């Protein structure tokens, strides 16, 4: 499982950059204008806020079609109207499963855990990670939007992107099993910094020579440590 969170892991992975984002945005505007679910004079503002202010990672726009994004914008607009005048009442839950993975999105307040809700993390574990085998393995990237879902609420959007792994070498043998450039997913290799590759390579070496769990402490630029 690979989880990249730009808030807590800055410098570990290169940013996702979607070169077709502006064309994608234009298509979404056209769809919303045709559907007429959002007042015409508000469409540009809602779309610009969703693309530029909410702060979703570009991977979301890479993976979701203009039709799906238009649906999400409409749903979020409706949720904001419904929650008007109600404290902490907004509820945003999206999921889109496809042949090679899935996208899950929900609103949450950073640092707060709740027993209710969509339980996407448990769902991802059960439906993708726990059943992964070398022939059909999955990786997960998780991001939190930099902006809030509403001016009156502290909640932001948490997104989970599940994708089937594309290993460089799906059946490594001999010394290749210790080589992170051979056993890793191609997308991970393209995004991970040299520091992360070195860190994970050390973990792989320890895992291969132990029968128990491997726990590694890594020092962050702030001076804090993470496991």
TrEMBL record:
NAD-specific glutamate dehydrogenase second domain span: 94-216
UniProt keyword Cell division present: no
In short, the EC number is 1.4.1.2
Enzyme class of the recorded protein, top EC level: oxidoreductase
Entry-linked InterPro entries: NAD-GDH_2nd, NAD-GDH_N
Q: Name one GO molecular function term.
A: glutamate dehydrogenase (NAD+) activity
Q: Does the keyword Membrane apply?
A: no
Q: Which UniProt keywords apply?
A: Oxidoreductase
Q: Which domain of life is it from?
A: Eukaryota
Q: Where is the NAD-dependent glutamate dehydrogenase N-terminal domain?
A: 19-81
Please state what the protein is called. Answer: NAD-dependent glutamate dehydrogenase
Protein source organism: Coemansia brasiliensis
* Recorded name of the encoding gene: GDH2_2
